[in-house]
Design goal:
The protein is of the alpha+beta class and 162 residues long. The chain has one domain. It contains two helices and ten strands, in the order αββββββββββα. The strands form two sheets. Strands 5-4-3-2-1-8 form a six-stranded antiparallel beta sheet, covered by helices on one side. Strands 7-6-9-10 form a four-stranded antiparallel beta sheet, covered by helices on one side. Strand 4 and strand 5 form a beta hairpin. The chain is rod-shaped. The termini are far apart. The model has no long low-confidence stretch (mean pLDDT 90).
Length: 162
């Protein structure tokens, strides 16, 4: 009896193995590309979120503060029951809330320049009513301008404290 069992030849098996290898390597390449794009989008999202949070907090903090003072690279906002310090460096900005507890936020934002002004005059120490923060987001220059509105009572108290 000379009967053959149906089977694949060695060449057919090698062709299937080669095609499977090509398909798996393409799938791995696609996975790697999708992973890189996801990481890039996460970083972009974090940067946009950090910038918007910084903008929101600066505006809110400046308006709620009784006084805003600058000393070097530190901006101190004084409220009735709290103080907030913003420290500016070239690679990040920190916000430290000191009240009943201490809380620090760090914003990974590259700061190109920041300027504080009092009544239109640039100041590096003293009372502040105008803050200009310049940064580069996604290789585009971005500027944040925040104003502090003082009442006459706060201005008189600030002038007697100087």
């Amino acid at each position: 009896m000379n009967s053959k069992l149906p089977a694949f030849t060695m060449i057919e098996l090698l062709v299937v193995l080669a095609l499977s290898g090509i398909i798996f390597s393409m799938a791995l390449l696609v996975f790697t590309i999708v992973k890189q794009q996801t990481l890039h989008q996460e970083k972009t999202h974090e940067t946009v979120w950090a910038w918007s949070q910084l903008q929101l907090l600066l505006q809110k903090d400046l308006q709620q503060a009784g006084q805003v003072r600058r000393a070097g690279a530190v901006l101190t906002l004084s409220g009735k029951a709290w103080d907030i310090e913003y420290q500016f460096s070239s690679s990040y900005i920190t916000r430290t809330l000191q009240g009943t507890t201490t809380h620090t936020d760090t914003f990974n934002i590259t700061t190109t320049t920041w300027e504080s002004q009092w009544q239109g005059v640039s100041v590096t120490a003293g009372l502040v009513d105008h803050l200009i923060l310049e940064s580069r987001l996604f290789e585009q220059p971005t500027t944040l301008v925040v104003h502090k509105k003082y009442g006459s009572h706060a201005i008189l108290n600030a002038n007697t404290n100087d």
